Amino acid sequence: MSSFDSKLYKFAVETAKEAVNFDRQGKYQQAINKYMRAAEILIQFMKFSNNKEMIQLCRKNSQDYIDRAKILKAKTGGSRPRSAGAKSSPSETSPQPMDDKIRSEGGSYTEEEQELIDTISGTIITESPNINWEDIAGLEECKQVLREAIVLPIIKPNLFTGARKPWSGILLFGPPGCGKTLLAKAAATECKATFFSASSADLLSKWLGESEKLISALFKVARIKAPSLIFIDEIDSVATSRGGGSESSGERRVKTQLLSEIQGLKTTAKQRILTLGATNRPWDIDDAMLSRFQKKVHVPLPDLPARSAIFMIETKGVEMDLEDDDFIELGVRSEGYSGRDISNVCQEVIMLPIRELDMSGLLENSNQEISLRPIIIDDFKKTLKKVKAMTTGSALKRYEQWADEYGETT
After folding, report:
1. DSSP 295
2. pLDDT band, residue 376 (cuts 50/70/90)
3. Which domains are assigned to the chain?
């Protein structure tokens, strides 16, 4: 068996395992798609293989997958799926009336649309975030940019007519842990948009052509469920500068597909889609990709009021013996800390009373009633000496220089 044959067969096996998992979970539409996909891959494998025993095994397995897909299709009340590789009849390719559409959470979709939705559901997170602007401390200018880009065009479309068009691409850049993901979720919550969250790992596949298909499916589903916000985290990993010596042809095709989709050539004016990229390394992104993002917003480390507010948010619901002035002091002591750094400090502090009881042996008796002491300011002071900020001064300077050259400072 050649290397190509081996990879193709392994891909079919992995796809079939995914189908079985969906089947066991009762996710029948996704299982149907995976069963049919596994059957198609096995049929392709048989075209290249010279091993008669393997061909016979694959023929049996592919037929089993198709049969199981037919059973599930009947179980869900849909029409019988075509055999893998079969041509569509005129009646199958013609538009389907609303009565034949599949009912799904959030609306009705045709079989083709539902198949696209199922394609990304196993990889891309589609959610309705429950994050509000009030949950994010500081970053007021960043919030305003996102409001203008996606919230206002949706709630007040009459204001955005003629040459006044909302932005379709925004790049958030800055040190790690400063709230880029939270900003994206809050923007989606404010305008009731469908939120798609994808990382570079979600979009890249080792199988030839799969990454491009996944990216295309993601944007098609976003157009179906518009208004939509597509959040691509760590976009620098999938959009590095083209033409490098280590770049493969597959990576180049993925970048080209992503460039085309972000540009919005297939998106109509009524299909409101915002592509929101986030990166900690904006200087690694390809120039053509950067040009697709009309707004490049610097998300900096939190300032003093924001740091004090983050300490309050991250310790909410925990008994503490602290005054408002104590939180201001904590904000001063944590200069240079990101939101995530402060969250790590708070998690460490919150665990201190439990750790003390455990080390004293008081938690060994499960029947004994115990009470936790309140958190005090000294707990934070000691922890801040141990948990250091992760962003260095040289890194901050580099972000500021890049913002001055390409982006917008806040």
Report:
1. E
2. very high
3. 1-80 (1.20.58.80), 125-300 (3.40.50.300), 304-390 (1.10.8.60)
